[in-house]
Amino acid sequence: MRILKFGGTSVAGPVRLRQVAGIVAAAVRRHEVAVVASAQAGVTDALVAAVDRRERAGLVEHLAARHLRGIEALGGPQAAAAAEAVRDRLTTLEALLGAEPANGEHAAWRDAVLATGERLSVHLVAAALAAVGLRARAVDAAELIVTDSGFGNANAQPAATRERALAWKGAWPDGTVPVITGFVGADPQGRTTTLGRGGSDTSAAVLGAALGARRIEIWTDVEGVLTAPPRIVPNAVPLPTLSFGVAREVALLGGKVLHPRTMEPAEAAGIPIVVRSTFAPQQPGTVVGPADRRTAHARVVTGLDGVALLSVPAHGWWSGGFGTPASRLQEAGITVLGFSRDEPSRVTVAVPQGETERAADLLAPDTDAASRVDRRADCCLVAVVGDGIAAGWRAEASLGDLLDRLHLPVVAVLRRSSPDAVVAVLRGHFLRRAIKALHGAVIAADRLSRLERTTHPSSPRSWGETRLAWQGGRP
Q: What span, in angstroms and rounded, lies between the C-alpha atoms of 170 and 175?
């Protein structure tokens, strides 16, 4: 079996749905296939606005017009049934929006509302597949994926999910393509949960592991994982292969192609993930799998805005590694972007800016200590990611030296718990400039050096390769 997951831009409108149908039809000729679908682009954002900012005027009517027009344009034998299912789902949404509960049940209610986008989308995808002659049926992942009750960012329960998914598969009619909602699960009490924004990727990986898939394909609007964000570096190129570890670090440090939690279930089950473009299906995309010779030289430059630095007294904290302060924050659900002991007496951590005050409270729980937490907001973080790239003892110093040579003012160079990334924090307005400069120095220089060594084997290595392809690259 292959899992084919299609993102929001891939299913946004009849033209794109026909492209999806063509891709699925080609896959079905060679493999057993299950499809996972996201909400159409922009729908979940509108639902978030309805829940969090009460922007509800005209929402149901807008969603009805958008989805029903799409079904009418697709036509085919399942159009009428899909339209009826969409109307039923929107009736449920209207009832939910009119019955907002008290605080105790608000998180569960919010997830039920946000799941509506995927629960609409699957009917359009199934109709599109039927229109090209395939048998297809929409499936709600709440019937398959068992999660905890962490509403808004629930965790799948692998054993319970596998048991339920295999029982479902045993009863599924041969030759019918299931079109499964991404992003959605249910807790043991049957309440709808969501797996976090972008969680349809995670759904695909969880289902792939549960069903014993041989491959998980993430179909999106780019031709794979690129060497840098293409909106910042237009000459960034897709990488043919990437390790699970590097893909995870890229996703955590600003990459938008894969959700960070996608890699864990796939890696545990030994299933490769392939990132491909719905709009260029002839391109091979990026294969994400175990670290080996093929992934050894892959390098990605990435970054993100909205980062804060917290510096606290080191006394009582330092444990010689990615230590206790980071652990305390991570246990509380705060993403730790980097960590260092920047001087003998202080420890520095980088966190998302929105978590600054909560992180400060955790690092300094008493009032007196809180006064000794230094905060610096409005920063950005840039990262160079590659197999084992941070394993060398001079990794942080090397990145700092490189940024100095590129005339980029560094606030801090930090380590991560992974050996596959080294990160630096700069003032916020330097993000685009830093990514462009690092891509030129690390990626472009390394690629040119490889070409030169192929053409002129005796030529020396470029400065960029000497300084940064340095650490890492597993044999």
A: 13
Torsion of CA 280, 281, 285, 287, to 10 degrees: 160
Give CA–CA dist 372/367, Å, rounded: 9
CB 179 within 8 A of CB 236: no
User: How many C-beta atoms surround the C-beta of residue 372 within 10 A?
Assistant: 12
Cα(168)–Cα(141) distance, integer angstroms: 11
Residue type, 239: L
Does residue 287 sit in helix, strand or coil?
A: strand
What are residue 29's phi and psi, to 5 degrees?
-65, -20
- Where helices occur in 115-199 by DSSP H, the ranges are 116-131, 158-171
User: What is the model's pTM?
Assistant: 0.89
Q: Could you give the angle at the alpha carbon of 205 between the alpha carbons of 199 and 209, nearest 5°?
A: 145
DSSP per-residue letters across 23-64: HHHHHHTTS-EEEEEPPPTTHHHHHHHHHHS---TTHHHHHH
- Apex 155 CA angle, 194 and 189, nearest 5: 70
Q: 259 with 199: CB under 8 angstroms?
A: yes
- State which amino acid sits at residue 330: Q
Domains, the chain: 2-221 (3.40.1160.10), 300-469 (3.30.2130.10)
* Residue linked to tokens 């400065």: 463
**At 418, which amino acid appears?**
S
pLDDT tens for the chain, 475 residues: list them.
999 999 999 999 999 999 999 999 999 999 999 999 999 999 999 999 999 999 999 999 999 999 999 999 999 999 999 999 999 999 999 999 999 998 778 999 999 999 999 999 999 999 999 999 999 999 999 999 999 999 999 999 999 999 999 999 999 999 999 999 999 999 999 999 999 988 999 999 999 999 999 999 999 999 999 999 999 999 999 999 999 999 999 999 999 899 999 999 999 999 999 999 999 999 999 999 999 999 998 999 999 999 999 988 776 554 444 457 788 888 888 999 998 875 567 788 999 999 999 998 888 765 455 457 888 988 999 999 999 988 765 777 888 889 999 999 899 999 888 999 999 999 888 999 999 999 998 886 665 444 344 334 433 333 333 344 333 433 2
Reading phi first (left if > 0) and then psi (alpha if -120 to 50, else beta), residue 210 is in alpha
